Amino acid sequence: MTTDLVIQGEDVPTPDLKRLHAIAHGDFIQRAGEAFRITGADPATRTAVAEHCAEAKLDWAFVPAGRKLADFGLLAMDMDSTLISIECIDEIADFAGRKAEVAAVTAAAMRGEIDWPESLRQRVAQLAGLEESVLRRVYDERLRFNPGAEKLIAAARAAGVTTLLVSGGFTYFTDRVRDRLSLDHAYSNVLVIEGGKLAGTTTGPLVDARGKAAHVARVAASLTLPRDRILAIGDGANDLPMMAEAGTSIAYHAKAVVKAQATYALDFVGLDGVLGLFPGT
């Protein structure tokens, strides 16, 4: 199988491209949209390529030549800090004056340092008593898509790829993001609302790490897709089981523990960098 080395970044200087071409023993350098492809690259040079790209602040990936986004049947994504730029629970907690402590727990959970279900219970408890209207304010005022998100989803839709959002956050946000981007499926946790205020608890099946993986497996089974036709994108430790269900996984601006286990990592470009790896057409 022929392999291409894909190089992406905010700026890709010509000297770096030429150096990487030499390091990877490639055939040709081709421009492909915002990305560059070094065709016929040798995967055995990945250590040297990684070292150069880390210094140059460039994203890199050895990918099968000719593989397209349409070759996948399912694109599964995390939401907070992956599809969108915020952690919704941290922003909700800001309205209770508790953002710093809640965000610290969130970050530790994403690094895999503490039990995720227990961390969610602790963080949600900090929201008790807040007006339900706070959720609308977070959505309207703070929720923003990460760069390239809408372009990626549009390309997936055009390629006939089923899209699945699986989040350890809350249905208030995932349902709206699903509708706004015309995603096929979205699953998340349900916040309990009592008398127009947050009760500080959730209800229903917990969408934790195992829950995310189960949703990916179930949707893939309903589509009769093998693992090699599943693409998953995440950033935190609770995404790892979901990403393990996929034949190809991408760590997006992710924690070190996630990058260590993912197939590819995007650290410097937006989500449209996925299209640099696997063009939509």
TrEMBL record:
Question: Can you cite an annotated GO cellular component?
Answer: cytoplasm
Q: What processes does the entry annotate via GO biological process terms?
A: L-serine biosynthetic process
Enzyme class per UniProt:
hydrolase
The EC number of this protein is 3.1.3.3
Catalysis performed (reactions): O-phospho-D-serine + H2O = D-serine + phosphate; O-phospho-L-serine + H2O = L-serine + phosphate
InterPro entries associated with the record:
DUF4072, HAD-like_SerB, HAD-like_sf, HAD_sf, PSP
Using the record's annotation, list all stretches that form the DUF4072 domain. Answer: 5-49
Sorted alphabetically, which SUPFAM superfamilies does this protein's record hold? HAD-like
Q: Which residues form a coiled coil?
A: none
Instruction: Tell me the active site.
Output: D78 (nucleophile), D80 (proton donor)
| Cofactor list | Mg(2+)
Name of the protein described by the UniProt record: Phosphoserine phosphatase
**Which organism does this record belong to?**
Usitatibacter rugosus
UniProt keywords, alphabetically: Amino-acid biosynthesis, Hydrolase, Magnesium, Metal-binding, Serine biosynthesis
Entry's family note: Belongs to the HAD-like hydrolase superfamily. SerB family.
